[in-house]
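seq:
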Amino acid sequence: MAFIQFSKVSLAFGDRDILKDVSVNLATGTKAALTGANGAGKSTLIKIMAGITEPDSGERSTQKDSRIAYLPQSGLVHSGCTLKEEADKAFDWGYEILKKADELGEQLKTETRNTDRIATEHAELLAKLEESGWYRRDALSESVLLGLGFERSDFTKRTEEFSGGWQMRIALAKALMCGPDILLLDEPTNYLDIEARNWLEKFLQDFKGGFLLVSHDRYFLDHTINEVYELFGGDLKRYPGNFSHYEEVRKVELNTLIAQYEQQQQEIQHLEEFIKRFGYKATKAAQAQERQKMLDRILENKIEIPESLKKIHFTFPQAPHSGQLVLTLEKICKSYGGPNVIDSLDLVVEKNERLVVAGRNGAGKSTLLRMIAGVDSQYSGNVKYGAGVTVGYFSQDSAEKITGSQTILEYMEERSPLDLIPKMRDMLGAFLFRGDDVFKSISVLSGGEKSRIALLELLLKPVNLLVLDEPTNHLDMHSKDVLLDALKDFGGTVIFVSHDRGFIEDLSTKVLELTPGHFREFPGDYKYYMQRIEDEANGIISTAEPVAPGKSGTKAMEVQAAATENKSAGKLSYEEQKKAEAEKRKLKKEAEKIEAQILETEEKKAELENQMALPEVYSNGEKAKAIQKEIEGLSAQIDGLNDQWLVALEKLEAVE
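struct:
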């Protein structure tokens, strides 16, 4: 069985311990994630595992002949051959075996001694090659490249023609194809669209070897891994279960840590006040010195809260009032010289909707958002805003507008509403500018850092229609959560594109699917959309025709609905339909509110159940009894809420 094993591995940069006596074993069947705050040393740890970086001390061992594939976050560039030829380099190990087998075959022709040994070794090499699937490498190569989003027409392109993101896809494809026993993947989803992420998710689920990966995509992690390693303060701790389970357990631990942290901060404050007040008085000098020694001891063991687990919440400035009808698109057509990328698109967006635009790369998602935002005017058709609509637009190009020599803090405070200035450092922290980072000059920031500044700057503007193209790029999981909470509470309308499935599922209320020249509307959240696509693929329901030029998405949905819904529904007057829709929305909100209460209560119950597993609780009869009583009360509350939820659903079904 293949493995990578660490034993008491340590590494320090200057006076900072990155790894302190870390021990871990990755083997065939391992499906693990590595997490930790930015700068905790995750990439460094993976490089040590890959044998690229040497630790200061400790042992690293691997099973003989284990094949380890490592993918860094960025920086890999390929050139000098076609995509197909570059992909074939992933199978160099097989060519080496074949070369050695050929050499042994030549020896058999000339050797007269040791022929049995040579023949046996020759046969073993050929059998190894056959069992590895090397002879099916062309089919594997094609499957992986197509799965990661390449087209067959790309296979003959020179690799230097591909952009940086596609260069990293090439590197990922080679890592997956090389027949690895252990995969070490540092942010493999960074440059993948949602279709490629879904494909990689399935690949890792079926992968027979072991893997350790770093990712900021919670949904992806929940569907690929079954254990989490957290790196914090140089220590590595293992948590069994998927990523959401790790977060639940860590939340309970964090509550205890915060209580200890707050108590320690009070002690530090009291000691510092005493020293400051009496340090220069002769009568108190001895006591002040003793207090200083106590303070030094505390500071040596100062408790730190992981930045990735601190919860920061902020709200947008109040959205200006707008009418119910926010946006209307009429017969929108867009071409880049060939067939229309977007053809006769009709769309109506209403107030408070969260519309996600879905589709593969090249389907026109970013193009549509640019037209809606007024950045691109080279199209035919009409884009009409409703009464009082003000638009805020974010794309990766927004970073180019961030210039100047001010510090980050100065830049943001200058552009912030007055009431948010006191919260600015917290908000910058939520967007990964922590500690002294806020004093960095705008002029030295990277493109990713400027993108985060541009996004935060947009969110501080009083608008009521946000148009967001990949807002989660360059954000870690914690920052995504902060952004998601703020967008859920936002009093306006959101139209967005994202490759983060968890983010989409939590935010979207409506889906617009784009394919080249066609579109479809799905009046439901992203889970409904994905279930619908899966049902269509499995033949459970008929595939709805993509909306053809000249036929609106709303009309197409009406035609499809008419085939299955009661004919009498079509006889309702406009006012009756409007009233029915209002009642339906009211009942839906009621059901969603109860569902949220159920989830919140279940989380409280789960937290108490975790506490019951703590030694200081189960060994204390009175405390355990009190917590058990709370659990029982919450269980009864959940039962009652479930009954209310079922009643609400029945009412909703009655009006649908």
